[in-house]
Structures are given as structure tokens and as C-alpha cells.
């Protein structure tokens, strides 16, 4: 629980990237209207700003963020900071050319760039934690869970903002992957840090229970027409809370190899 700012920063950032991706792809496939895409982009931008603000609490002083950029190219943390900044900048530019200086071509280009740098930002996050000195983190499961948050939480948000087909598909794939790999992940941790991993059972259980429930709730809401914004909003919130719980467990696994 000692890294809560980073818990919120990574989960919300990955969720925003997932929403940008799924909403834009849905629009290009004709599954989403321009108005719905606009609302999705606004929501994703707000979520990413919240992620940055909360993540800034970990840095301590805002100006230290610029010090983090000094190692771009050689430091995974500096790369993450740079890509998060570019991601937000293109997200802001997308809204600028959509809502204020209305220019369809520039808005489209900025939206594409936002999606690309959102994915690059998500890619950069596990690079920070795949370090040999922390055996519990030095595994493919670290990278896997970061990308699954993009699919699961991003999918839940996409469903909320109208991209229901791709959002539901992303949520389903991400949830199945989490369930399919959890036993192997726990087995790996049983070898690298059995005591500390056992302490995370409550956080993981909450995550899995919520995802399991949502696997039944979403079909009931979407395929029976009960897809009100309020109900889908509660579902999205539950999924994000589940991913936050799983991420708390991840950060609690920090343990220097002796």
C-alpha cells in the first residue's frame, strides 16, 4: 500500500489508453458516432490528467518531473515520463482541434497519434519494473498484467461510452487471460517470494471475483438491452477498482533479491 500514487497512475493511465484505442477503432469501423468518439476522448483525457496528478504525488515536487526527463533513452523511468507527456499532449491537441479550433484533418491526425503514444506509454510502464534485483517483478507476468489492464479497464470504459462491441471483446479477452495465467503467476511467486505473495491473496481474490461477476453482468446488460449509462458506469467503476486491487498486490511484492 506504500505506492498508491503509482497504483493509480499506472491503472488509470492504461485505462485511458485503452479507451482511446477502442473508441477510435470503433469509430473507424463505423460502430461509434463522432459525438460518442468526442465524449470518449474527453473522458479518456480527464482520466489521464487525474492519473498524472495522482502520480505526481509520488514525485513529491512537480518540478522533479522535468529531472526525470534527463535520462531519456537510457532510463526506463525517463522514457515513461516522456511518453506520458507526449500522450497527454496529443490528447489535448485532439480536443483542441475537435472542440475549439475545429479542423477535421488535424483532429484525426492527433487522435491517431494519441492512440499510438498511448500504446507506447503502456509499453514503457513494465520496462520500469522488469529489473533483475526484484525477483517478484522480473517476469513476463509483470508485462502481461499491465497490458491486460488496458484491455479489461479500457474495455469497460469503452462499453460505457458506446464502443460496446470492441469494448466487450477487449474485456472478455483480458479477463480470460488474467484467469488463465493467474495460477502460473502465483506458482512463480511461490518460488521467488512465497510469504509476501501469500499476503496478497485478499487483493487478488477481490480482483478475480469482480471480473468473474462482470463476465456474467455485461452479457445481461448488453444483450438484453439494459445498457443504461448509470449501470454501465457502476460496472466500469467496479472493474477499475478490481484492477487497482490487483495493482496494489503487485506493488506490495517489492522485495530486493538477496
From TrEMBL:
GO terms for molecular function: dimethyl sulfoxide reductase activity. InterPro entries: DmsC. The chain crosses the membrane at residues 6-25, 37-61, 81-101, 108-125, 137-161, 168-189, 201-222, 229-250. The keyword Repeat does not apply. GO terms for cellular component: dimethyl sulfoxide reductase complex; plasma membrane. Keywords: Membrane, Oxidoreductase, Transmembrane, Transmembrane helix. Signal peptide: none annotated. The keyword Coiled coil does not apply. Pfam families: DmsC. One of its GO terms (biological process) is anaerobic electron transport chain. Its EC number is 1.8.5.3. This is Dimethyl sulfoxide reductase anchor subunit.
Amino acid at each position: 500500500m506504500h505506492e498508491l500514487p503509482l497504483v493509480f497512475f499506472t491503472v488509470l493511465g492504461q485505462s485511458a489508453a485503452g479507451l482511446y484505442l477502442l473508441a477510435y477503432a470503433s469509430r473507424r469501423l463505423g460502430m461509434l458516432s463522432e459525438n460518442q468518439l468526442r465524449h470518449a476522448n474527453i473522458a479518456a483525457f480527464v482520466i489521464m490528467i487525474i492519473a498524472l496528478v495522482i502520480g505526481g504525488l509520488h514525485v513529491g515536487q512537480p518540478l522533479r518531473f522535468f529531472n526525470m526527463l534527463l535520462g531519456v533513452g537510457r532510463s526506463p523511468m525517463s522514457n515513461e515520463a516522456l511518453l506520458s507527456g507526449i500522450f497527454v499532449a496529443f490528447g489535448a491537441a485532439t480536443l483542441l482541434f475537435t472542440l475549439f479550433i475545429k479542423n477535421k484533418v488535424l483532429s484525426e491526425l492527433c487522435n491517431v497519434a494519441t492512440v499510438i503514444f498511448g500504446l507506447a506509454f503502456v509499453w514503457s510502464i513494465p520496462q520500469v519494473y522488469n529489473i533483475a534485483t526484484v525477483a517478484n517483478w522480473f517476469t513476463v507476468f509483470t508485462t502481461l498484467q499491465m497490458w491486460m489492464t488496458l484491455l479489461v479497464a479500457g474495455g469497460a470504459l469503452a462499453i460505457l461510452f458506446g464502443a460496446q462491441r470492441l469494448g466487450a471483446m477487449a474485456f472478455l479477452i483480458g479477463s480470460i487471460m488474467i484467469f488463465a495465467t493467474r495460477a502460473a503467476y502465483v506458482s512463480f511467486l511461490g518460488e521467488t517470494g512465497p510469504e509476501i505473495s501469500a499476503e496478497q491473496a485478499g487483493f487478488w481474490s477481490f480482483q478475480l471475483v469482480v471480473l468473474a461477476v462482470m463476465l456474467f453482468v455485461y452479457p445481461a446488460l448488453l444483450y438484453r438491452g439494459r445498457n443504461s449509462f448509470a449501470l454501465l458506469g457502476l460496472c466500469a467503476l467496479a472493474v477499475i477498482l478490481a484492477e487497482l486491487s490487483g495493482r496494489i498486490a503487485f506493488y506490495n511484492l517489492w522485495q530486493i533479491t538477496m
